[in-house]
Write a structure and sequence with these properties.
Blueprint lengths: L7 H8 L6 E3 L2 E7 L3 H18 L4 E5 L2 E6 L9 H11 L1
Antiparallel strand pairs: 1-2, 2-4, 3-4
Length: about 90
């Protein structure tokens, strides 16, 4: 059973509680910047363990000291509560 997709209003309400996250091309989107590649990779390792524990995995990329994350729930066809929760946990 998939998690239900959030409405536009629910997404906008969630964005008011998430620091630095935006809606870009139908996905929750944020770019993190670090002092160097090692710091960026360490962050990605922590997020990977968190995502695996939640069984919800980000679309992401790393270029040197920058990590770009996009969150969506593919089987729901959009943003769900899982994406909002993962965004919150990533920020912690």
């Amino acid at each position: 059973m998939s998690t239900p997709k959030l409405t536009e209003g629910e997404i906008q309400a969630a964005l008011t509680t998430l620091t630095g996250w935006q809606l870009v091309e139908g996905k929750l989107h944020k770019v993190y910047q670090f002092p160097n590649f090692v710091s960026a990779f360490a962050f990605m390792t922590k997020v990977a363990l968190l995502a695996e524990k939640m069984d919800h995995h980000p679309e992401w990329s790393n270029v040197y000291n920058r990590v770009t994350i996009n969150l969506t729930t593919h089987d729901a066809g959009g943003i769900t509560a899982k994406d909002v929760e993962l965004a919150r946990q990533i920020d912690q």
